[in-house]
Amino acid sequence: MVLVALVITAAAVVFTISRFVPFSSDAAVAPASPPAKPGSYLGVYESGALTTYQPVADFTQAVGRQPNLVGYYSGWGEPFQISFAQTAREHGAATILQWDPTDASVASIAAGHYDKYLRSFADSVRDFGHPVVMGFGHEMNAYWYSWGYRHLPPSTFVAAWRHIVTLFRAQGARNVTWLWTLQADEPGTGPIAAWWPGARYVTWVGIDGYYYHSFETFSSIFGETIAQVRMFTGLPVLLSETAVGPQAGQAAKIPDLFAGMRQYGLLGLVWFDVPQHQGIYHQDWHIEDSSAAKKAFRSEASSLPLVHP
Q: Is-contact 277 50, C-beta < 8 A?
């Protein structure tokens, strides 16, 4: 959703656990993707985490569980933040990275004009040697980014996605879990299937969505999107960016978020733990700012069967 730029049907569906299908015949030696069990991931995005890990430590203390996914957003042209990834690894977490083509031509990416940069990035990820969950051009089915709906033909995005994945694999960076990240379907978003690059190029599907109002439920926010995704893939689904705002009733709705995640058999969730104060779509998502929300979150997170990625 658009708020991330500030920090640069209803039935249960059981997914098919799967790994990417590599292009070459060396699948036996390719590193495995992180475990893909329902409810096995609790992640967090924190503003400032690239500078200090303390916000993640504060989140850990607040919710009573060590997150096993810790994320950051990268603009185009920036290097892979290997120091951050190493710190996350030391705390038992894999890095989840949303890599966006800010100020870049997606058509040029697809045509290979950025290959020198891509190879450098791929080499850094490969040399890190541990699982990295990585998306490109997140929320491309929404209208608020230059690489998304109404700004770019889906075929151009798909070509760029496939080019990036192919190049990374050629560079030996097979420790990447490719996260194809959608905005939850809402008025103004585009047709999801048009942006699908194919199962050979994707490991997990990510869905971003938030509780803004008290009348919203997991089904009303995510149900239609999950149903559409299941029309063309059974790959694991992660709630890759989510939170409940105070105006939605955090303490009351956090249990609904976790219950929906379990009902639909999803991998887990990544909480957008950022305080914002710019209206209904930019609420204070910071879990530490509400004792009732912390209590509800801690109770729900306590039973998650978290894995070591």
A: no
